[in-house]
Write a structure and sequence with these properties.
The structure holds 2 protein chains of 2 kinds.
Chain A: H1 2-7, H2 13-23, H3 41-46, H4 53-74, E1 113-118, E2 126-127, H5 128-132, E3 137-144, E4 150-159, H6 160-166, E5 175-180, E6 185-189, H7 190-193, E7 199-204, E8 207-208, E9 218-220, E10 233-239
Parallel strand pairs in A: 1-10
Antiparallel strand pairs in A: 1-2, 3-4, 4-7, 5-6, 5-10, 7-8, 7-9
Chain B: H1 3-15, H2 20-46, H3 64-91, H4 94-99, H5 104-115, H6 129-153, H7 159-164, H8 168-195, H9 197-205
Helix pairs in contact in B: 2-3, 6-8, 8-9
The chains are: A alpha+beta, B mainly alpha.
């Protein structure tokens, strides 16, 4: 634990695993923003609730959508995330999810198939051995969590933009949507999907992706926050519909670019 | 306009301590910075840098997702209002008149006077050396907190800025330190405004 604290400021390994659950909105609340709109400290200062909850919720959602557009504008498709050396890799690299590690999905490699759907010419499902046969690239980049901590990891796999071309995807479509073994979902914008560092990762630190990091496939996106990068991916859809994602549906900013 | 009314106008403006743009910017900034601090504390609690967290009763946003929505909404108000304030401060010459010159000798003398309760507040239109240093310092801290915040928000797109702050992890500490400096300033600033109520009145009515 002490080592963890040293390598990642402010991260307690044990707390990290449990934290994600605590960070979830109170299930008793009707919507994620319930209570969010009451200004807490400011209400205490002024002695009255100065903000109407519903209109504040609407305003915050509106600004978050505006921030999506600002970030899409700021996103430079040719700007690469900084890369690091082997020595910089955070060990052990943290596991983080809204469930405990022993609840993480177990995917059977023998029966696994990556389903392809939407705006692609070739929708043939991909077996794991077919995916592993794709040309491999490697990156050592910084993973930044929405919680604030960061860790440097090493991922190997196929360039997503190459794969999209291989399946004849319409790259003029706006989004790529992912479904995961445990029901997690995520939708990313096409410019990010086509970024040269966006990777279908099959390995972490040159070893087959362990269960903790998303076996058999994680989408590694060094230009986005961690929750935008689905693990245990079982389906990919090229689409013009923004299907949202597990966390952004609950209030995290959808674009969440770095 | 007659010479007489011009003279009256001049007399009125001479008595005005804070022009209306200063007062408007001040109170918009006050609201924005309170939301930024309160929501920032909730964000900090998701991954604390030090061995403490901020009690939920004094944070804004209820949980990390809500706090981030507030933080990334109030940032626009803080930054746009801040740019208007700094631009007008420079263009109108107010910064030059009010905040300069400020020399180390005057600062030391005024700190001594302040600590022995001999620092005069008779003329609110004139800042003493301690005030000049604090107001210049807080404007500079404002620049640091916005720049370090940008470097945490966009460590890929603005990676040169992030590198300037010593990398992503270090930039978080810089952002926190700037917050701590602002909170410390606020404690002193608000206390003094309450001790010298006419200074608070001047920031509301202008006189």
């Amino acid at each position: 634990m002490a080592r963890f604290r040293k390598t990642i400021p402010g991260v307690d390994a044990k707390a990290l695993i449990n934290d994600a659950g605590k960070l979830m909105p109170d299930p008793a609340r009707r919507s994620f923003l319930r209570g969010v709109a009451s200004l807490g400290a400011l209400t205490m200062l002024t002695g009255c609730d100065i903000v109407n909850e519903d209109s504040a919720e609407d305003a915050l959602r509106y600004v978050s959508r505006f921030n999506d557009r600002v970030q899409a504008f700021l996103f430079n498709p040719n700007k690469l995330a900084p890369t690091y050396t082997e020595a910089d890799i955070t060990r052990p690299f943290p596991f983080n999810a809204y469930y405990d590690l022993d609840e993480a999905p177990v995917v059977d490699p023998a029966t696994y198939k990556l389903e392809i759907s939407g705006l692609a010419d070739n929708k043939k499902p991909w077996t794991l051995s077919e995916l592993h046969a794709l040309p491999e690239v490697s990156q050592i980049t910084r993973h930044v969590c929405v919680e604030g901590w960061s860790a440097i990891g090493s991922w190997q796999g196929a360039v997503l933009s190459d794969f999209l071309k291989r399946i004849g995807a319409d790259t003029r479509a706006q989004y790529v949507h992912f479904k995961c073994a445990e029901g997690y979902t995520e939708t990313i914008d096409m410019p990010t999907a086509l970024h040269p560092q966006t990777q279908m990762s099959f390995k972490f630190d040159n070893k087959i992706l362990p269960r903790a990091y998303g076996f058999p496939m994680k989408i590694r996106i060094p230009t986005k926050l961690g929750f935008k990068q689905p693990k245990y991916v079982v389906a990919m859809e090229v689409t013009n519909v923004n299907r949202g994602g597990y966390w952004s549906n609950q209030g995290y900013n959808w674009f969440s670019g770095l | 306009m007659t010479a007489e009314t011009m003279h009256a106008d001049y007399a009125a403006s001479a008595k005005t301590i804070h022009p209306v743009w200063v007062r408007v910017c001040h109170w918009i900034n006050a609201l924005a910075i309170l939301v930024m601090i309160g929501s920032g504390w909730q964000v900090y609690d998701a991954s604390p840098l030090f061995g403490f967290t901020f009690p939920r009763a004094i944070t804004i946003g209820d949980w990390l997702g809500g706090a981030l929505l507030w933080h990334f909404a109030a940032m626009w108000i803080l930054v746009i209002n801040g740019l208007v304030y700094v631009t007008l401060g420079i263009v109108t010459g107010r910064f030059r008149r009010k905040l300069f010159p400020v020399g180390p000798r005057a600062v030391v003398a005024d700190i001594k006077a302040a600590l022995t309760f001999k620092l005069s507040h008779d003329d609110l239109s004139h800042y003493n050396a301690v005030q000049k240093v604090l107001y210049l310092g807080i404007i500079l801290t404002g620049v640091v907190i916005v720049a370090s915040g940008l470097s945490i928000w966009k460590p890929v797109q603005f990676q040169e800025l992030t590198a300037f702050f010593g990398g992503y992890d270090t930039a978080r500490y810089v952002h926190f330190a700037a917050m701590a400096a602002i909170v410390t300033f606020l404690v002193v600033h608000v206390s003094l405004a309450l001790i010298v109520p006419k200074s608070l009145r001047a920031m509301i009515t202008g006189k």
